[in-house]
């Protein structure tokens, strides 16, 4: 800890109960954040994907997700 951190007025365990209920923090990459700017957008997209997967599992199909990669998006990696 850095010396400038002052915890003398801190309350031990203040958020322990809330933390115990569960936390799920996920860091999104910048390009993903541009598409999904908030929690609601991310959750809606994941729920939609989950429904698609479940529908295909129910009918016994294998899911193939096409991926389109634009050449310009690969330039930072080349």
Considering the chains and any ligands shown, give keywords for the structure:
46% helix
**Overall average pLDDT:** 80
Largest sheet: none
Portion in beta strands: under 5%
Overall strand count = 0
Can you give the helix content as a percent range?
40-55%
Secondary-structure element order, N to C = HHHH
From the helix content, strand content and strand pairing, which structural class follows? mainly alpha
Helix count equals: 4
Low-pLDDT stretches: none
The coarse silhouette is elongated
Distance between the termini: 40 Å
- Estimated radius of gyration: 21 Å
Describe it.
This protein is mainly alpha-helical and 78 residues long. 46% of the residues lie in helices and 0% in strands. It is built from four helices and no strands.
């Amino acid at each position: 800890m850095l010396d400038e951190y002052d915890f003398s007025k801190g309350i031990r365990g203040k958020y322990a109960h809330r933390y115990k209920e569960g936390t799920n923090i996920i860091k999104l990459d910048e390009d993903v954040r541009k598409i999904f700017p908030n929690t609601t957008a991310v959750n809606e997209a994941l729920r939609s994907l989950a429904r698609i997967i479940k529908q295909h599992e129910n009918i016994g199909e294998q899911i193939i997700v096409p991926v389109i990669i634009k050449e310009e998006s690969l330039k930072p990696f080349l």
